[in-house]
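Dear Dr. H.,

I hope your travels went smoothly. While you were away I took the liberty of generating a structure for the chain from your last submission, since the lab meeting agenda had it listed for discussion. I wanted you to have the full record in hand beforehand rather than looking at slides cold. The sequence, exactly as received, is reproduced here:
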Amino acid sequence: MSNSFIDGGLIPLKYTQAGEQASPQLAWANAPMGTQSYVLHMHDMDVTRNRTSEDQLHWLVWNVPPTAKGLPEGVPRGSHLADGSYQISATGPLYRGPGAPATGPLHHYVFELYALNITFDVAPTEDAFETRTIVVTAMQGHILGKAVYGGLFRRPAQ
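The corresponding predicted structure, in token form, is as follows:
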């Protein structure tokens, strides 16, 4: 859930590269029994990276405590957050808002939340895409549940 925009709706400028680039507020409930941590993966499904099947990473947050019921609007920059979780994006240790060009179609930005039965000792590397691969690999076999929330964005024409 989010108070920032409706699922499947347009993402307001405030949460994009064309605006303040503040992370949106996200909330969740009904965690599966045995949840030990959460991973949030935000990506642009309409972009291919380096002619591969890999898409654009906008935000990866992992080892979110099992007691968390969401993330507030405007999560601060920094790879290690106050609650013990880590974050990274293609532009560094921060939320990277949507940035689809004005000249193309709306892009689909997906927030995937995974409930895991573990926490894992993975620190961010210098390469966000390498970090994502390490985190996703560490998650395998430990996913108790998944929730998906999405939004659309294209930069305004100037």
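Two observations you may find useful: The first strand starts at residue 9 and ends at 10. Residues 128-139 form the longest helix (12 residues).

With kind regards,
E. W.
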